[in-house]
Structure formats: structure tokens, C-alpha cells
Amino acid sequence: MSSVTAPPVPFVPTQPPTEQAHPPEVSLMQITAFDDAETLGAPIPCRSLDPEVFFAETPADVEYAKSLCGTCPVKESCLQGALERREPWGVWGGELFVQGVVVARKRPRGRPRKNEVVA
Fold it and tell me: Is 103 a residue whose pLDDT tops 80?
């Protein structure tokens, strides 16, 4: 005679869930700007290219990401949103954020040379 086993009982938590972190607020204006640009067929570089480009490590790659933002139709609202959210890093609206602050250029890794290199 074969024995029949009951299916496993699904896990049901007995405690209410703890408070979870909420995603940063995004203004309605920003959402509308992105949706309008996509509806009109305007290319948005950060949505059509690899997102890693906008979080690059090398100064040359960061400058490339900043140049991609130059033709973006939502550049201003992207930058404004990043400033409001205090984005910790990355290229947003054509500007580089490092530790939540806009910086002009990304420094290369390592220590700076004590003496200039003679070519």
C-alpha cells in the first residue's frame, strides 16, 4: 500500500511586517518629462544604453557619459531630481555626483605624482 503525503504548508508570517524603507520620492514633473520624451520618440540615453556607463570608474568613461547627456531632452529635470534626492554617485543630468556633491571632473585612481613626468 502506498502512503500519500500532504503538500507542504506555505509559510505565513505571524508577526506584522516591520517598517520597510520607502523608495525616494520622484516628483510628478520628472515622471511626466520622461514619459513625454519617450512618447515623442526622443531618445533618452540612460534608458537606451547600458546603465553602467553612467556609473563608470575611469575619468574618460565619466566624460563619455556626461557627453551622452548633452542631447537628452530631460537633462534639466534629471539633474534637478538628482539634487533633490542627493544622489550619492553617478552621472545625472550631465553632471558627476561624488558623495552627493556635484564635481567638475573625476580624479584618476591612485596618488598624484610628486613630480611632473618629463615626456
Answer: yes
- Interval 56-77 mean pLDDT: 90
75 part of a folded domain? yes
Of residues 35, 69, 59, 48, the one with CA closest to residue 107: 59
Alpha-carbon distances of 27 from 31, 33, 42, 51, 96, rounded to whole Å = 7, 10, 21, 21, 21
Cα–Cα dist 93/75, whole Å: 4
User: What is residue 42's DSSP assignment?
Assistant: -
pLDDT digits (tens, 9 = 90+) for 8-55: 555 545 555 554 444 444 444 455 555 555 555 677 888 888 889 999
Residue 100: how many other CB atoms lie within 10 Å: 12
Domain housing 61: 50-107
Q: What ranges in the chain are assigned the alpha helix state H?
A: 28-39, 45-48, 59-68, 75-85
Residue 101: phi and psi, rounded to 5, are -120, 140
Tell me if 76 is assigned to some domain. Answer: yes
